[in-house]
Amino acid sequence: MELKINGHNVALVFGMAFVRELNRLAGVATKEGINLGMALQTTIPSLIGADPVAIANVIYAATAHVKTGRPTQEDVDTYLEDEVDDWDKLAEKLVTELEKSNVTKRPLQAMKAAAENQG
Length: 119
Prior knowledge:
The protein is mainly alpha-helical. It is about 60% helix and about 5% strand. It is built from 6 helices and 2 strands. It has helices at about 15-25, 40-50, 50-60, 75-85, 85-100, 105-119, and strands at about 1-5, 10. β1 (about 1-5) and β2 (about 10) form a beta hairpin. The chain is globular and about 40 Å long.
């Protein structure tokens, strides 16, 4: 998946760098400040619900592989505020990409199965 952020085409990659960055951004922390990770488990339901912060975090984390000229979180926020009209459609596209990645597809499948069993 590719987005045009701040005038540059940026490939979003949902690999290990993505998971590490998402854990840094949205991981569960203890009261002592120790990050336990688990950002996928907390972010996926919010992403499916088209939560703007979850979408922004997922997009920003998916740029973690960019070595030079990586968009900032502010660049991603500006892109979302100025360019996105259909948040649900963007969220669906991101979920589809997560389903394709060998790193993220299993946790996503588990979360969807758990949600179906509760409903």
